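Our example copied in:
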Amino acid sequence: MQNTENNSTLISRDEIESRVISVLEEMTADWDMDFSGGINSQTRLMEDLAFESIDVVQLVVSLEKNFARKDIPFEKLFMQEGDYVDDLLVTEVIDFLHKHLNNRS
């Protein structure tokens, strides 16, 4: 797994999707889940993968490490109007990262 990024290089949505799914597969590899069919963009973190709050923290840390970035405002993804979101699709994580990894303003 490549953890270094040239910060001036744009990252494609396909690459982000591949890396997010890889991180999720690594995280859940030894979990005892009822979910089957493989993780894809329509997989729900809480409903399908049974994510709990500590898993969200682990995901954030793993994504920061994978993309070599600590300045991604994940609170905007996981909180809305002061409350934690009930669930997220993998595609929402990918869209969020695509927006923030490629917007350095």
The beta strands are 79-80, 83-84.
